[in-house]
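FIELD: query
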Amino acid sequence: MAVVLGIGQSYITCLLGVAYPVFKSFLTLDSGDAQQETQWLTYWVMFGIFQIIDHFAGFILHFIPFYYVLKMFALIYMFHPSTQGATYIFNNYVRENFDKMEKQTSEMLAQAKRAPKTE
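FIELD: result
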């Protein structure tokens, strides 16, 4: 309710996006459950992307009505065990772009290595 009213909304969403996932990630480290390890590692990748976007575009995003409420629901969707939203979003939307960027980066590095050195 505090998030809807604008009371401590950035702190609450940050705490929500970090506290429970840290606890579950910690428990997963010793579980040996590969599916859970993938889910939580993917969650942290997606959370990092979310934070970068939030940091650099935050001044625009904050003009969206109920931005923090939407962010809160997005974070819950990403970490909730029944949805495993982070894995779904990564596999269906993000992975393809990462693969393209990785290929382009590899090609650029290969070209840079082949380029004649000028001295």
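FIELD: remark
The CA atoms of residues 111 and 117 lie 12 Å apart.
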